[in-house]
Amino acid sequence: MQFRHLLAAFLCLAASAAPAHAQFSPALLQNHHYWGDGKAEFSIYGAQIVRYGEPRETEVLHILVREPFDPKQGVKPEDWKQPGMTAVLKMNQILHVPTGLYVYQQMHSNFWRVDDAKLAKFSLTSNDSCGNTYKEARRDGDKFTYEYRTYWDGMAAGSEPVTPAANGYFYDELPWLVRTIDFSKPEGEFEIQLSGSAIHSKKDNFEWQPAKVSFKAADDRFINVQVQHGAGADEFVLDRHGPHLLREWKQADGSRLKMKRMLKVDYWNHNKPGDKERAFKNPMLRLPD
Fold it and tell me: What is the full DSSP assignment across 130-164?
């Protein structure tokens, strides 16, 4: 009998020491009913993006869509039925940021495998009227092969391995990751390791530092999530109920995003003159506010 009590106590202790990454659930990523309709989340945010220490009024676009993925090429295959293909959730963060006479145009893409919820690849294109930059990281087991080509002196081109810390994530995964938290309880917190953002034109030097993720239901409609990290705190406002849409994001550097409009749409088929206005007016393409 004493042994049973000791075993029960040990199991409770082991459960309390479970890896923090268990707080991120693959359930939403693997929800075929939501992502298997052949459409994308197309979210437009009114934004103030900080550049050169000043907030710049603009719009930011987030696009999330499930699509087939060729792990060898790291791209969407033409023939998704061929052997070896898998499925990913792709997220594009698209920024068009005016800075005086010129403009930053950037897109960051993440690709998470549906089967294991791991990040398979990220890429970034950036131009700022001074030059072009391209960066990409592809998973190879427990590490990534990171490649870069920039216009900066001493950073012209290169390739190097990047090994995330245990329970480590890239900062630019956050707008998706916070939506996958296990919200079965009204509040909670856990720790992760977090690197800095790659959404800039220079080569990255990824370093993982401790970060605390905490969440609390604000009311019947919304959940507040805070990610406290070395550079400050990022705050997110999500829908309390699935799919936990991202309504607002206050970043540690002072940048802010607030959702203006969200469509569930096959946007690649809306490329004719006037399609934007027609899509905005179509109530069948809008998720409930």
Answer: S-EEEEEEEEETTEEEEEEE-SSTT-SEEEEEE-P
